[in-house]
Amino acid sequence: MNAPLRRDSDETRSAILSTAWDLFRQLGARTTIADIADALSMSSANVYRYFPTKKALTDATCERVLGSAFEAIRAAADGQSRPIDRAAAMLRTMHVLMRDQMTSQARVHEIVDIAIQERWPAIDAYHANCGGLLAEIIGAGQATGEFGPGEPAALAMQTLAACASINHPVLIAQCSDKAPWPTPDEVVAFALRALCNRQVG
Length: 201
Prior knowledge:
Elements: H1 9-27, H2 33-39, H3 44-50, H4 54-78, H5 83-102, H6 106-117, H7 121-144, H8 152-162, H9 164-167, H10 169-175, H11 184-195
């Protein structure tokens, strides 16, 4: 039997979170602290040193995964120059990440559904971050004349609500690829048309 790797505190915490996410994808909500400890060749007591309860661990794992997702969303938006293109890149990336990372495996879908129903803090933080970024983009688009008038934060929330069918894991799983349900590109185009300045063009 191989001796466990020696890690410092930050490395151990990171390893626990990475392993927890791997096991959540495999086992779903029935993953236990003992499962995670076994996978890391450490004791359950050692895992509890970093996360006092399973809920604390699931919250931290969710926060980490969604934090990485938001970084990718911001990077996609920042890769464009015009506000309308930034908004389109953001909304499409949100969909792709949710589709590929959250709904492609049944066990992950199960965890995400529970997190949304129970309003885990990381879910609310993710929604707030996405709303804030889109509001920032809308404000920039209003300054250039691309987007019409309105309070940017309110418009951002309305736009995200209009795109719920391509971002909510349950709707993605149940409705995607089912005619005549609109495609993700059609949903994004519809939302952006609502934002556009009708006095231009």
